[in-house]
Q: What sequence folds into this?
Protein backbone atom coordinates (compact mmCIF):
# COMPACT_ATOMS: atom_id res chain seq x y z
CA UNK A 1 0.00 0.00 0.00
CA UNK A 2 1.30 3.45 -0.88
CA UNK A 3 1.11 6.16 1.77
CA UNK A 4 2.00 9.87 1.70
CA UNK A 5 4.76 11.38 3.82
CA UNK A 6 2.74 12.58 6.81
CA UNK A 7 0.55 9.52 7.04
CA UNK A 8 3.70 7.39 6.99
CA UNK A 9 5.07 9.45 9.86
CA UNK A 10 1.88 8.93 11.82
CA UNK A 11 1.95 5.18 11.17
CA UNK A 12 5.62 5.08 12.06
CA UNK A 13 4.94 6.70 15.43
CA UNK A 14 2.12 4.27 16.19
CA UNK A 15 4.02 1.21 15.03
CA UNK A 16 7.29 1.95 16.78
CA UNK A 17 5.43 2.91 19.94
CA UNK A 18 3.54 -0.37 19.81
CA UNK A 19 6.63 -2.50 19.29
CA UNK A 20 8.78 -0.86 21.96
CA UNK A 21 5.85 -0.84 24.36
CA UNK A 22 5.21 -4.52 23.74
CA UNK A 23 8.84 -5.49 24.34
CA UNK A 24 9.13 -3.40 27.52
CA UNK A 25 5.66 -4.54 28.62
CA UNK A 26 6.60 -8.20 28.33
CA UNK A 27 9.79 -7.54 30.32
CA UNK A 28 7.91 -5.61 33.02
CA UNK A 29 5.10 -8.11 33.36
CA UNK A 30 7.64 -10.95 33.60
CA UNK A 31 9.37 -9.08 36.38
CA UNK A 32 6.06 -8.06 38.00
CA UNK A 33 5.65 -10.99 40.47
CA UNK A 34 9.15 -10.45 41.83
CA UNK A 35 8.63 -6.70 41.94
CA UNK A 36 5.33 -7.12 43.80
CA UNK A 37 6.90 -9.41 46.38
CA UNK A 38 9.71 -6.95 46.79
CA UNK A 39 7.27 -4.04 47.10
CA UNK A 40 5.33 -5.76 49.88
CA UNK A 41 8.52 -5.90 51.93
CA UNK A 42 9.02 -2.13 51.65
CA UNK A 43 7.22 0.69 53.36
CA UNK A 44 3.90 1.13 51.51
CA UNK A 45 4.67 4.81 50.83
CA UNK A 46 7.85 3.86 49.02
CA UNK A 47 6.42 0.72 47.46
CA UNK A 48 3.58 2.56 45.70
CA UNK A 49 6.07 4.90 44.05
CA UNK A 50 8.18 1.96 42.94
CA UNK A 51 5.24 0.04 41.47
CA UNK A 52 3.80 3.13 39.85
CA UNK A 53 7.12 3.88 38.12
CA UNK A 54 7.41 0.29 37.01
CA UNK A 55 3.91 0.33 35.53
CA UNK A 56 4.63 3.50 33.58
CA UNK A 57 8.05 2.33 32.43
CA UNK A 58 6.88 0.68 29.15
CA UNK A 59 4.89 3.70 28.04
CA UNK A 60 7.71 6.09 28.93
CA UNK A 61 10.30 3.94 27.18
CA UNK A 62 8.11 3.63 24.11
CA UNK A 63 7.47 7.37 24.02
CA UNK A 64 11.18 8.08 24.47
CA UNK A 65 12.27 5.80 21.63
CA UNK A 66 9.51 7.02 19.33
CA UNK A 67 9.96 10.73 19.85
CA UNK A 68 13.70 10.84 20.52
CA UNK A 69 14.85 8.43 17.83
CA UNK A 70 12.27 7.41 15.28
CA UNK A 71 10.59 10.76 14.62
CA UNK A 72 13.84 12.85 14.35
CA UNK A 73 15.46 10.28 12.07
CA UNK A 74 12.39 10.21 9.84
CA UNK A 75 12.04 13.98 9.67
CA UNK A 76 15.73 14.49 9.04
CA UNK A 77 16.53 11.70 6.62
CA UNK A 78 13.31 10.79 4.83
CA UNK A 79 12.85 12.74 1.58
CA UNK A 80 9.72 14.87 1.90
CA UNK A 81 6.75 14.87 -0.42
CA UNK A 82 7.17 11.31 -1.66
CA UNK A 83 4.75 8.46 -1.65
CA UNK A 84 6.13 5.09 -0.65
CA UNK A 85 4.95 1.56 -0.47
CA UNK A 86 4.58 0.19 3.04
CA UNK A 87 4.48 -3.44 4.15
CA UNK A 88 1.57 -5.18 5.89
CA UNK A 89 3.50 -6.00 9.09
CA UNK A 90 4.25 -2.31 9.49
CA UNK A 91 0.61 -1.40 8.90
CA UNK A 92 -0.56 -4.08 11.34
CA UNK A 93 1.79 -2.74 14.03
CA UNK A 94 0.53 0.79 13.35
CA UNK A 95 -3.09 -0.32 13.65
CA UNK A 96 -2.34 -2.13 16.90
CA UNK A 97 -0.55 0.98 18.18
CA UNK A 98 -3.54 3.15 17.37
CA UNK A 99 -5.83 0.57 19.00
CA UNK A 100 -3.76 0.78 22.19
CA UNK A 101 -4.41 4.49 22.36
CA UNK A 102 -8.04 3.90 21.52
CA UNK A 103 -8.45 1.47 24.41
CA UNK A 104 -6.73 3.83 26.84
CA UNK A 105 -8.72 6.82 25.67
CA UNK A 106 -11.99 4.89 26.01
CA UNK A 107 -11.11 3.75 29.55
CA UNK A 108 -10.16 7.24 30.59
CA UNK A 109 -13.21 8.78 29.01
CA UNK A 110 -15.54 6.29 30.71
CA UNK A 111 -13.86 6.74 34.08
CA UNK A 112 -13.93 10.53 33.84
CA UNK A 113 -17.51 10.50 32.72
CA UNK A 114 -18.64 8.23 35.50
CA UNK A 115 -16.73 10.29 38.09
CA UNK A 116 -18.25 13.50 36.78
CA UNK A 117 -21.73 11.99 36.91
CA UNK A 118 -21.19 10.69 40.44
CA UNK A 119 -19.85 14.04 41.67
CA UNK A 120 -22.69 15.89 40.01
CA UNK A 121 -25.25 13.55 41.55
CA UNK A 122 -23.65 13.97 44.98
CA UNK A 123 -23.63 17.74 44.65
CA UNK A 124 -27.27 17.71 43.65
CA UNK A 125 -28.36 15.34 46.42
CA UNK A 126 -25.97 16.50 49.11
CA UNK A 127 -24.87 19.49 51.08
CA UNK A 128 -21.58 20.86 52.33
CA UNK A 129 -20.60 19.89 55.84
CA UNK A 130 -17.81 21.54 57.77
CA UNK A 131 -16.03 19.40 60.32
CA UNK A 132 -13.62 20.91 62.83
CA UNK A 133 -10.07 20.08 61.85
CA UNK A 134 -10.92 19.53 58.20
CA UNK A 135 -9.59 22.13 55.80
CA UNK A 136 -12.30 21.75 53.17
CA UNK A 137 -15.97 20.88 53.58
CA UNK A 138 -17.25 17.36 53.05
CA UNK A 139 -20.07 16.56 50.72
CA UNK A 140 -22.76 14.91 52.83
CA UNK A 141 -25.11 12.80 50.71
CA UNK A 142 -28.52 11.71 51.94
CA UNK A 143 -28.09 8.01 51.29
CA UNK A 144 -28.16 4.75 53.19
CA UNK A 145 -25.35 3.29 51.05
CA UNK A 146 -21.97 2.97 52.73
CA UNK A 147 -20.13 5.73 50.88
CA UNK A 148 -16.95 7.37 52.06
CA UNK A 149 -14.98 8.30 48.99
CA UNK A 150 -12.64 10.76 47.44
CA UNK A 151 -14.15 11.69 44.10
CA UNK A 152 -12.64 13.81 41.37
CA UNK A 153 -9.23 14.12 39.85
CA UNK A 154 -7.98 17.69 39.86
CA UNK A 155 -10.00 19.04 42.78
CA UNK A 156 -11.17 15.91 44.58
CA UNK A 157 -14.04 16.14 47.07
CA UNK A 158 -14.61 13.95 50.08
CA UNK A 159 -18.06 12.42 49.82
CA UNK A 160 -19.74 10.81 52.78
CA UNK A 161 -23.20 9.34 53.04
CA UNK A 162 -25.57 10.09 55.92
CA UNK A 163 -25.50 6.40 56.92
CA UNK A 164 -21.71 6.35 57.32
CA UNK A 165 -21.66 9.73 59.01
CA UNK A 166 -24.12 8.54 61.64
CA UNK A 167 -22.62 5.08 62.07
CA UNK A 168 -19.09 6.19 62.86
CA UNK A 169 -17.95 7.57 66.16
CA UNK A 170 -16.01 10.82 66.27
CA UNK A 171 -12.61 9.08 66.38
CA UNK A 172 -13.55 6.65 63.67
CA UNK A 173 -14.78 9.45 61.46
CA UNK A 174 -11.64 11.47 62.05
CA UNK A 175 -9.28 8.63 61.12
CA UNK A 176 -11.41 7.60 58.15
CA UNK A 177 -11.28 11.13 56.80
CA UNK A 178 -7.53 11.17 57.41
CA UNK A 179 -7.28 8.03 55.35
CA UNK A 180 -8.97 9.76 52.44
CA UNK A 181 -6.85 12.86 52.98
CA UNK A 182 -3.84 10.55 52.67
CA UNK A 183 -5.08 9.56 49.23
CA UNK A 184 -5.65 13.19 48.38
CA UNK A 185 -2.16 14.27 49.46
CA UNK A 186 -0.50 11.51 47.48
CA UNK A 187 -2.73 12.39 44.48
CA UNK A 188 -3.90 8.82 44.15
CA UNK A 189 -6.80 9.74 41.90
CA UNK A 190 -4.43 11.41 39.44
CA UNK A 191 -2.25 8.32 39.58
CA UNK A 192 -5.27 6.12 38.95
CA UNK A 193 -6.07 8.23 35.92
CA UNK A 194 -2.50 7.87 34.66
CA UNK A 195 -2.70 4.11 35.15
CA UNK A 196 -5.82 4.07 33.02
CA UNK A 197 -4.13 6.27 30.48
CA UNK A 198 -1.11 3.98 30.28
CA UNK A 199 -1.94 1.59 27.44
CA UNK A 200 -2.42 -2.14 27.99
CA UNK A 201 0.13 -4.56 26.55
CA UNK A 202 -2.09 -5.48 23.61
CA UNK A 203 -5.41 -3.86 22.71
CA UNK A 204 -7.48 -6.49 24.54
CA UNK A 205 -4.87 -8.05 26.81
CA UNK A 206 -4.13 -5.87 29.80
CA UNK A 207 -1.00 -7.70 30.94
CA UNK A 208 -0.25 -5.49 33.92
CA UNK A 209 -2.98 -6.61 36.35
CA UNK A 210 -0.55 -7.97 38.93
CA UNK A 211 1.26 -4.65 39.17
CA UNK A 212 -1.92 -2.61 39.22
CA UNK A 213 -3.53 -4.77 41.89
CA UNK A 214 -0.42 -4.60 44.04
CA UNK A 215 -0.33 -0.84 43.58
CA UNK A 216 -3.99 -0.49 44.57
CA UNK A 217 -3.52 -2.57 47.71
CA UNK A 218 -0.38 -0.77 48.71
CA UNK A 219 -1.91 2.64 48.11
CA UNK A 220 -4.66 1.68 50.58
CA UNK A 221 -2.02 0.52 53.06
CA UNK A 222 -0.11 3.77 52.60
CA UNK A 223 -3.26 5.79 53.27
CA UNK A 224 -3.96 3.61 56.34
CA UNK A 225 -0.47 4.33 57.63
CA UNK A 226 -0.99 8.03 57.01
CA UNK A 227 -4.25 7.98 58.97
CA UNK A 228 -2.86 5.85 61.80
CA UNK A 229 0.23 8.04 62.10
CA UNK A 230 1.93 5.28 64.13
CA UNK A 231 -0.55 5.84 66.94
CA UNK A 232 -2.14 2.59 68.23
CA UNK A 233 -5.37 4.34 69.21
CA UNK A 234 -5.78 5.83 65.77
CA UNK A 235 -4.98 2.46 64.18
CA UNK A 236 -7.68 0.89 66.30
CA UNK A 237 -10.21 3.57 65.37
CA UNK A 238 -9.49 3.12 61.69
CA UNK A 239 -9.72 -0.67 61.95
CA UNK A 240 -13.08 -0.46 63.69
CA UNK A 241 -14.30 2.09 61.15
CA UNK A 242 -13.36 -0.30 58.34
CA UNK A 243 -15.27 -3.17 59.92
CA UNK A 244 -18.26 -1.00 60.72
CA UNK A 245 -18.54 0.27 57.17
CA UNK A 246 -18.06 -3.25 55.79
CA UNK A 247 -20.95 -4.36 57.98
CA UNK A 248 -23.17 -1.81 56.32
CA UNK A 249 -23.18 -3.83 53.12
CA UNK A 250 -21.75 -3.64 49.66
CA UNK A 251 -20.58 -0.20 48.65
CA UNK A 252 -21.91 1.10 45.35
CA UNK A 253 -19.62 0.58 42.40
CA UNK A 254 -17.86 3.86 41.80
CA UNK A 255 -15.59 4.99 39.01
CA UNK A 256 -12.10 3.56 38.78
CA UNK A 257 -10.65 6.94 39.61
CA UNK A 258 -12.46 7.29 42.93
CA UNK A 259 -10.91 5.97 46.11
CA UNK A 260 -13.23 4.53 48.73
CA UNK A 261 -12.49 3.56 52.29
CA UNK A 262 -13.70 -0.02 51.95
CA UNK A 263 -13.42 -0.56 48.25
CA UNK A 264 -11.37 -3.72 48.15
CA UNK A 265 -13.36 -5.96 50.44
CA UNK A 266 -11.07 -8.94 49.82
CA UNK A 267 -8.26 -6.94 51.37
CA UNK A 268 -10.30 -5.90 54.39
CA UNK A 269 -9.08 -8.61 56.76
CA UNK A 270 -5.50 -7.98 55.81
CA UNK A 271 -5.84 -4.25 56.33
CA UNK A 272 -7.47 -4.68 59.72
CA UNK A 273 -4.84 -7.19 60.82
CA UNK A 274 -2.13 -4.85 59.65
CA UNK A 275 -3.59 -2.01 61.67
CA UNK A 276 -3.93 -4.16 64.77
CA UNK A 277 -0.50 -5.68 64.82
CA UNK A 278 2.38 -3.59 66.15
CA UNK A 279 4.11 -1.69 63.38
CA UNK A 280 6.91 -3.65 61.84
CA UNK A 281 10.09 -1.72 61.65
CA UNK A 282 10.74 -1.46 57.96
CA UNK A 283 13.73 0.77 57.33
CA UNK A 284 13.38 3.89 55.24
CA UNK A 285 14.85 3.47 51.77
CA UNK A 286 18.55 3.93 51.78
CA UNK A 287 19.99 7.01 50.13
CA UNK A 288 22.00 4.62 47.96
CA UNK A 289 18.83 3.29 46.34
CA UNK A 290 17.63 6.77 45.46
CA UNK A 291 21.07 7.71 44.22
CA UNK A 292 21.10 4.61 42.05
CA UNK A 293 17.70 5.41 40.58
CA UNK A 294 18.70 9.02 39.87
CA UNK A 295 21.96 7.90 38.30
CA UNK A 296 20.23 5.38 36.05
CA UNK A 297 17.75 8.00 34.85
CA UNK A 298 20.52 10.58 34.29
CA UNK A 299 22.69 8.10 32.42
CA UNK A 300 19.74 7.12 30.27
CA UNK A 301 19.08 10.80 29.51
CA UNK A 302 22.73 11.44 28.60
CA UNK A 303 22.77 8.30 26.46
CA UNK A 304 19.64 9.28 24.56
CA UNK A 305 20.89 12.88 24.13
CA UNK A 306 24.20 11.51 22.88
CA UNK A 307 22.72 9.21 20.28
CA UNK A 308 20.25 11.83 19.12
CA UNK A 309 22.92 14.44 18.41
CA UNK A 310 25.16 11.92 16.69
CA UNK A 311 24.02 11.68 13.09
CA UNK A 312 25.34 8.16 12.58
CA UNK A 313 22.87 6.88 15.14
CA UNK A 314 19.99 8.50 13.35
CA UNK A 315 21.22 7.05 10.09
CA UNK A 316 21.24 3.59 11.62
CA UNK A 317 17.77 4.11 13.05
CA UNK A 318 16.53 5.34 9.70
CA UNK A 319 17.88 2.28 7.91
CA UNK A 320 16.20 0.08 10.45
CA UNK A 321 12.94 1.95 9.98
CA UNK A 322 13.16 1.68 6.22
CA UNK A 323 13.43 -2.09 6.53
CA UNK A 324 10.56 -2.14 8.97
CA UNK A 325 8.31 0.05 6.82
CA UNK A 326 8.85 -1.94 3.66
CA UNK B 1 -14.55 -21.00 69.86
CA UNK B 2 -12.86 -23.89 68.12
CA UNK B 3 -16.04 -24.56 66.20
CA UNK B 4 -16.26 -20.97 65.02
CA UNK B 5 -12.66 -21.01 63.90
CA UNK B 6 -13.16 -24.26 62.11
CA UNK B 7 -16.20 -22.80 60.44
CA UNK B 8 -14.23 -19.78 59.29
CA UNK B 9 -11.50 -22.00 57.90
CA UNK B 10 -14.01 -24.24 56.22
CA UNK B 11 -15.74 -21.30 54.62
CA UNK B 12 -12.37 -19.89 53.55
CA UNK B 13 -11.52 -23.17 51.88
CA UNK B 14 -14.90 -23.19 50.20
CA UNK B 15 -14.43 -19.66 49.02
CA UNK B 16 -11.02 -20.47 47.60
CA UNK B 17 -12.48 -23.41 45.78
CA UNK B 18 -15.23 -21.25 44.36
CA UNK B 19 -12.67 -18.68 43.30
CA UNK B 20 -10.85 -21.45 41.49
CA UNK B 21 -14.01 -22.66 39.86
CA UNK B 22 -14.74 -19.23 38.51
CA UNK B 23 -11.18 -18.72 37.36
CA UNK B 24 -10.82 -15.57 39.40
CA UNK B 25 -7.09 -15.55 38.86
CA UNK B 26 -7.99 -14.51 35.39
CA UNK B 27 -8.98 -10.86 35.49
CA UNK B 28 -10.87 -10.97 32.25
CA UNK B 29 -13.19 -13.76 33.24
CA UNK B 30 -16.70 -12.45 33.09
CA UNK B 31 -18.67 -13.52 36.09
CA UNK B 32 -22.22 -14.61 35.59
CA UNK B 33 -22.91 -10.95 35.48
CA UNK B 34 -26.41 -11.48 34.30
CA UNK B 35 -27.34 -11.96 37.93
CA UNK B 36 -27.59 -8.26 38.46
CA UNK B 37 -26.85 -6.94 35.03
CA UNK B 38 -23.36 -6.10 36.20
CA UNK B 39 -21.39 -6.23 33.01
CA UNK B 40 -17.89 -5.19 33.88
CA UNK B 41 -14.92 -7.52 33.78
CA UNK B 42 -14.15 -8.02 37.40
CA UNK B 43 -11.55 -8.85 39.96
CA UNK B 44 -11.69 -10.75 43.21
CA UNK B 45 -12.75 -7.71 45.18
CA UNK B 46 -15.41 -7.08 42.63
CA UNK B 47 -16.50 -10.67 43.03
CA UNK B 48 -17.03 -10.18 46.75
CA UNK B 49 -18.96 -7.02 46.10
CA UNK B 50 -20.91 -8.85 43.50
CA UNK B 51 -21.86 -11.57 45.93
CA UNK B 52 -22.93 -9.02 48.48
CA UNK B 53 -25.06 -7.50 45.77
CA UNK B 54 -26.43 -10.94 45.03
CA UNK B 55 -27.68 -11.15 48.57
CA UNK B 56 -29.46 -7.88 48.06
CA UNK B 57 -31.38 -9.37 45.12
CA UNK B 58 -33.62 -10.82 47.75
CA UNK B 59 -35.20 -7.40 47.80
CA UNK B 60 -35.89 -7.62 44.07
CA UNK B 61 -39.27 -8.65 42.71
CA UNK B 62 -39.94 -12.35 42.22
CA UNK B 63 -39.82 -12.25 38.41
CA UNK B 64 -36.44 -10.50 38.44
CA UNK B 65 -34.96 -13.04 40.83
CA UNK B 66 -36.21 -15.98 38.88
CA UNK B 67 -34.93 -14.48 35.61
CA UNK B 68 -31.53 -13.81 37.17
CA UNK B 69 -31.31 -17.32 38.62
CA UNK B 70 -32.20 -18.91 35.30
CA UNK B 71 -29.60 -16.91 33.45
CA UNK B 72 -26.96 -17.61 36.04
CA UNK B 73 -27.62 -21.33 35.99
CA UNK B 74 -27.43 -21.36 32.22
CA UNK B 75 -24.16 -19.40 32.29
CA UNK B 76 -22.67 -21.78 34.82
CA UNK B 77 -23.80 -24.82 32.89
CA UNK B 78 -22.16 -23.51 29.70
CA UNK B 79 -19.04 -22.56 31.55
CA UNK B 80 -18.55 -25.94 33.16
CA UNK B 81 -19.49 -27.86 30.03
CA UNK B 82 -16.82 -25.92 28.12
CA UNK B 83 -14.26 -26.59 30.77
CA UNK B 84 -15.09 -30.30 30.78
CA UNK B 85 -14.70 -30.41 27.01
CA UNK B 86 -11.36 -28.63 27.23
CA UNK B 87 -9.99 -31.22 29.60
CA UNK B 88 -9.21 -34.01 27.10
CA UNK B 89 -6.63 -36.47 28.36
CA UNK B 90 -6.30 -35.03 31.81
CA UNK B 91 -6.34 -37.07 35.01
CA UNK B 92 -9.48 -38.89 35.97
CA UNK B 93 -11.50 -36.93 38.47
CA UNK B 94 -11.74 -38.93 41.64
CA UNK B 95 -11.98 -38.44 45.32
CA UNK B 96 -8.74 -39.12 47.11
CA UNK B 97 -8.60 -41.07 50.32
CA UNK B 98 -6.67 -39.69 53.30
CA UNK B 99 -3.60 -41.78 52.48
CA UNK B 100 -3.63 -40.72 48.84
CA UNK B 101 -4.01 -37.11 49.87
CA UNK B 102 -1.04 -37.46 52.21
CA UNK B 103 1.07 -38.90 49.42
CA UNK B 104 0.01 -36.19 47.00
CA UNK B 105 0.84 -33.55 49.63
CA UNK B 106 4.37 -34.92 49.90
CA UNK B 107 4.81 -34.93 46.15
CA UNK B 108 3.39 -31.42 45.76
CA UNK B 109 5.76 -30.18 48.42
CA UNK B 110 8.90 -32.08 47.40
CA UNK B 111 8.40 -32.58 43.68
CA UNK B 112 9.75 -35.74 42.09
CA UNK B 113 10.38 -38.40 44.74
CA UNK B 114 11.02 -42.08 45.11
CA UNK B 115 8.84 -44.43 47.16
CA UNK B 116 11.39 -44.33 49.96
CA UNK B 117 11.41 -40.50 50.02
CA UNK B 118 7.62 -40.39 50.23
CA UNK B 119 7.56 -43.05 52.98
CA UNK B 120 10.05 -41.01 54.99
CA UNK B 121 8.29 -37.69 54.55
CA UNK B 122 4.68 -38.74 55.01
CA UNK B 123 3.26 -37.74 58.38
CA UNK B 124 2.19 -41.13 59.72
CA UNK B 125 4.49 -44.18 59.73
CA UNK B 126 3.61 -46.48 56.83
CA UNK B 127 5.10 -49.61 55.37
CA UNK B 128 7.17 -49.17 52.24
CA UNK B 129 4.86 -51.49 50.31
CA UNK B 130 1.77 -49.50 51.34
CA UNK B 131 3.30 -46.31 49.98
CA UNK B 132 4.37 -48.15 46.84
CA UNK B 133 0.86 -49.48 46.26
CA UNK B 134 -0.64 -46.05 46.86
CA UNK B 135 1.75 -44.41 44.43
CA UNK B 136 1.00 -47.08 41.85
CA UNK B 137 -2.74 -46.53 42.31
CA UNK B 138 -2.30 -42.78 41.85
CA UNK B 139 -0.23 -43.42 38.74
CA UNK B 140 -3.02 -45.60 37.35
CA UNK B 141 -5.49 -42.82 38.10
CA UNK B 142 -3.22 -40.68 35.93
CA UNK B 143 -2.50 -38.28 38.75
CA UNK B 144 1.22 -39.06 38.72
CA UNK B 145 3.96 -39.50 36.16
CA UNK B 146 6.80 -41.87 36.79
CA UNK B 147 10.18 -42.70 35.35
CA UNK B 148 12.68 -45.37 36.20
CA UNK B 149 16.05 -44.45 37.61
CA UNK B 150 18.51 -46.98 38.99
CA UNK B 151 15.92 -49.75 39.40
CA UNK B 152 13.51 -47.49 41.26
CA UNK B 153 10.57 -45.45 40.09
CA UNK B 154 10.56 -41.70 40.61
CA UNK B 155 7.05 -40.26 40.84
CA UNK B 156 6.00 -36.68 40.12
CA UNK B 157 2.53 -35.08 40.15
CA UNK B 158 0.94 -34.42 36.77
CA UNK B 159 -1.02 -31.47 38.10
CA UNK B 160 -0.14 -28.75 40.53
CA UNK B 161 -2.15 -28.55 43.71
CA UNK B 162 -4.17 -25.63 42.35
CA UNK B 163 -4.91 -27.42 39.10
CA UNK B 164 -6.03 -30.49 40.99
CA UNK B 165 -8.29 -28.52 43.29
CA UNK B 166 -9.76 -26.72 40.31
CA UNK B 167 -10.40 -30.00 38.50
CA UNK B 168 -12.04 -31.49 41.55
CA UNK B 169 -14.20 -28.43 42.12
CA UNK B 170 -15.22 -28.40 38.45
CA UNK B 171 -16.31 -32.00 38.68
CA UNK B 172 -18.26 -31.35 41.83
CA UNK B 173 -20.12 -28.42 40.38
CA UNK B 174 -20.55 -30.04 36.98
CA UNK B 175 -22.12 -33.00 38.79
CA UNK B 176 -24.59 -30.69 40.48
CA UNK B 177 -25.42 -28.86 37.29
CA UNK B 178 -25.95 -32.06 35.39
CA UNK B 179 -28.62 -32.98 37.90
CA UNK B 180 -32.16 -31.77 38.29
CA UNK B 181 -33.22 -28.18 38.59
CA UNK B 182 -33.66 -28.80 42.28
CA UNK B 183 -30.01 -29.73 42.75
CA UNK B 184 -28.93 -26.67 40.79
CA UNK B 185 -31.00 -24.47 43.03
CA UNK B 186 -29.47 -26.21 46.00
CA UNK B 187 -26.00 -25.45 44.72
CA UNK B 188 -26.82 -21.82 44.16
CA UNK B 189 -28.35 -21.41 47.56
CA UNK B 190 -25.39 -23.18 49.24
CA UNK B 191 -23.09 -20.92 47.32
CA UNK B 192 -24.83 -17.77 48.49
CA UNK B 193 -25.21 -19.05 52.04
CA UNK B 194 -21.53 -19.88 52.22
CA UNK B 195 -20.53 -16.45 51.04
CA UNK B 196 -22.91 -14.80 53.48
CA UNK B 197 -21.57 -16.93 56.32
CA UNK B 198 -18.07 -16.15 55.23
CA UNK B 199 -18.58 -12.40 55.37
CA UNK B 200 -20.42 -12.60 58.65
CA UNK B 201 -17.85 -14.87 60.28
CA UNK B 202 -14.96 -12.82 58.98
CA UNK B 203 -16.37 -9.56 60.27
CA UNK B 204 -17.18 -11.10 63.64
CA UNK B 205 -13.63 -12.40 63.91
CA UNK B 206 -12.21 -8.99 63.04
CA UNK B 207 -14.45 -7.26 65.58
CA UNK B 208 -13.27 -9.68 68.22
CA UNK B 209 -9.67 -8.92 67.43
CA UNK B 210 -10.34 -5.19 67.65
CA UNK B 211 -12.03 -5.60 71.04
CA UNK B 212 -9.08 -7.63 72.34
CA UNK B 213 -6.62 -5.06 71.09
CA UNK B 214 -8.64 -2.22 72.63
CA UNK B 215 -8.66 -4.00 76.01
CA UNK B 216 -4.89 -4.44 75.79
CA UNK B 217 -4.41 -0.75 75.06
CA UNK B 218 -6.64 0.28 77.95
CA UNK B 219 -4.78 -2.06 80.30
CA UNK B 220 -1.45 -0.72 79.13
CA UNK B 221 -2.64 2.86 79.61
CA UNK B 222 -3.84 2.04 83.14
CA UNK B 223 -0.56 0.40 84.17
CA UNK B 224 1.53 3.25 82.82
A:
Amino acid sequence: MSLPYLLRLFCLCAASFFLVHLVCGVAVSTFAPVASRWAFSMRPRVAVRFLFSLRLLPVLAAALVTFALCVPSYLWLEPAATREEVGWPFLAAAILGVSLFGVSATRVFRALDSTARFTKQCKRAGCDLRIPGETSPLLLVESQAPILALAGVWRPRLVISRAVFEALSRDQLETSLSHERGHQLSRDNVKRLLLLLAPPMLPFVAGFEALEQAWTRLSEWAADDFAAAENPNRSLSLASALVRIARMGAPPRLSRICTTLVGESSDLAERVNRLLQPAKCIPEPRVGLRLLATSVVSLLGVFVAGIVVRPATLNAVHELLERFIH
Amino acid sequence: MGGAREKVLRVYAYERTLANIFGLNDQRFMLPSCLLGWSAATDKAGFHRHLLDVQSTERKPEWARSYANERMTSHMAHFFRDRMLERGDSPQPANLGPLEEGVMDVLWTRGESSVRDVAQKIERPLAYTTVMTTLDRLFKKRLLDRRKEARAFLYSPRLTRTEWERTRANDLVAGFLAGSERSRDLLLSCFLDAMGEHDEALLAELEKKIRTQRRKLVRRAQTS
In short: Chain B touches chain A at residues 27-28, 38, 40, 43-49, 52-53, 56, 199, 202-203, 205-207, 209-210, 213-214, 217 (CB under 8 Å). The first strand of chain B starts at residue 113 and ends at 114. Confidence is low (pLDDT under 50) at residues 1-9, 20-60 of chain B.
